[in-house]
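Thread amino acids onto this structure.
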């Protein structure tokens, strides 16, 4: 096909076409131009790029197959599959850039890393599971004054109870580990009302099978404390491999206006913030194991512009947070 499309004077392109036809199918080869495959059942020469954890690069991933819809036999029925006693372990990195117009001293760049284990303790007849989520080895990289404060405020490990249904929607409860730390307890009490409503555990699944390119909406309650409600729009991208694991890839995004709903007056964090206005934009990608539909790798970016307090001198904060996680076992 490359040779047929090549112009007569495009000798280099004709050579690339012959090389592509001689190479094994479904392998990517880079030559300083967009990557093509010898299997030509994708539309013309276009593929979606493989999105790698930590957003390292777009294009050819060594040993990773391209994401392509054409090789799928039919729609995919996304459903979590749990097994009692099994666990998955992850490494996580969160990077945050923050600026505050009223308090420039609060401007900061912070990186937090941690290890997480998700263990399934019980599986219900409806396919849902009771999981224990343990986060440990929490470390911060930040200016010394901020780092010292964070290390004093945050526990070195946390444990949460999570109930996850087969659509990968999760409700969580604080464990005593968090309640024993005053700051963590304050944060937990602020978050707990929102966590009682189901939120996506990575990605919420559709009610019916979907094909690549199709979308579905998932309710998102995590910003309820800030008076924001709405949906995440999920899009099924296709299939790929991550570190040798066959995965389905899903992208999601959501745009939420803050303060459209009254803040919960009983929430201690909401009381501290007072009036809140602004917008939060959420975008992300998750690669899901084709076997049990658990997350193999994911990345998400949350961008916030928020005005708090009201009155003659409100405080405006701008924040960008990027979170990545990778399954290690």
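Threaded sequence (329 positions):
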């Amino acid at each position: 096909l490359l040779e047929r499309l090549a112009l007569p004077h495009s000798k280099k392109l004709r050579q690339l076409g012959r090389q592509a036809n001689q190479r094994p199918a479904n392998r990517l080869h880079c030559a300083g131009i967009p990557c093509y495959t010898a299997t030509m059942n994708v539309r013309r020469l276009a593929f979606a790029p493989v999105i790698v954890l930590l957003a390292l690069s777009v294009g050819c991933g060594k040993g990773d197959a391209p994401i392509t819809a054409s090789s799928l036999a039919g729609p995919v029925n996304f459903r979590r599959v749990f097994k009692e006693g099994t666990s998955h372990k992850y490494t996580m990195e969160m990077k945050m850039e923050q600026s505050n117009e009223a308090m420039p001293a609060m401007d900061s760049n912070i990186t937090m890393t941690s290890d997480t284990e998700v263990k399934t303790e019980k599986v219900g007849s409806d396919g849902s599971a009771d999981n224990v989520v343990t986060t440990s080895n929490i470390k911060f990289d930040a200016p010394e004054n901020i780092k010292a404060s964070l290390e004093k405020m945050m526990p070195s490990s946390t444990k949460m109870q999570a109930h996850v249904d087969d659509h990968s929607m999760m409700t969580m409860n604080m464990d005593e580990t968090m309640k024993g730390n005053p700051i963590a307890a304050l944060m937990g009490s602020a978050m707990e009302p929102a966590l009682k409503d189901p939120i996506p555990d990575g990605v919420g699944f559709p009610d019916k099978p979907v094909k690549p390119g199709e979308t579905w909406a998932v309710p998102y309650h995590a910003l309820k404390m800030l008076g924001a409600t709405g949906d995440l729009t999920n899009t099924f991208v296709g299939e790929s491999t991550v570190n040798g694991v066959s995965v389905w890839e899903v992208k999601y995004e959501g745009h939420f206006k803050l303060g459209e709903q009254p803040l919960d007056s009983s929430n201690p964090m909401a009381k501290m913030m007072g009036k809140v206005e602004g917008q939060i934009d959420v975008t992300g990608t998750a690669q899901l194991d084709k076997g049990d539909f658990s997350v193999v790798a994911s990345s998400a970016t949350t961008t916030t512009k928020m005005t708090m307090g009201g009155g003659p001198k409100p405080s405006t904060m701008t924040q960008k947070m990027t979170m990545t996680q990778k399954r290690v076992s």
